[in-house]
Amino acid sequence: MLKDKGSKITAAFVLAILAILGWAIAPLFLPLYRWIDVDFQKEAASKNVPLEELQKEYDIFLFYDPRGEGDPAPWKIVDMIPEWGGESTAAWEKNEEYDIEVRCILISDKTGKPPSTLYVGSFPKDRYFGCKGWRFKPGSLGQTSTRPVVMFNSMSWHKLDPGQFRAYQQRNLDDGDDYFPEYDDEWYPEEEDEEEEGEGEEE
Question: Tens digits of per-residue pLDDT, 103-154?
């Protein structure tokens, strides 16, 4: 009897350990953030946008172009398929973004955090990425930035092949802040601010 009881306790302990380990590594494989923390219906209601539009999954192509160390929005949307501005409605007006790059807040559907820059290189060919994902209005998903929020499907994250990245590079895309000032977060690297202050003091 005592042996059976001891075996049950041991089995329960092992199962508890496995459950803890499983929960710890689950974000490596499963979109836990999207499943647990993202309520599309709530976001649609709070931002006054059609639910079916918010749930639409796009092919999104991005370029890593930080403005300096600590840039909160270092990623730019260079293309979306279907075209972002092509399905504008009265409920959710979309700006035409062809040949325009738009800075965004980019987060993973696994963790709710930005993607790792481990595979981002210094050459342009190493800074273009593609993914499946969802686009939200600025201020969605707990973000406070004026930038649109993109949640990407982590399993679809990939670096663009040479032909794709060259095609986007050759388009010479315009800066979205020049077209959509409501997106501009007016963020500048601290180093530049300090230099400007120093120059003013010298004068």
Answer: 999 999 999 999 999 889 888 889 999 999 999 999 999 999 999 999 999 9
DSSP state of 26: G
Q: Do 49 and 144 belong together in one domain? A: yes
Token pair for residue 96?
A: 């035409």
Question: Radius of gyration of the chain from Cα atoms?
Answer: 22
pTM of the model: 0.81
Shared-domain flag, residues 120 and 48? yes
Question: Residues with Cβ < 8 Å from 169, sequence gap 6 or more?
Answer: 124, 128
Same structural domain, 3 and 73: no
- Residue for token pair 């601290």: 190
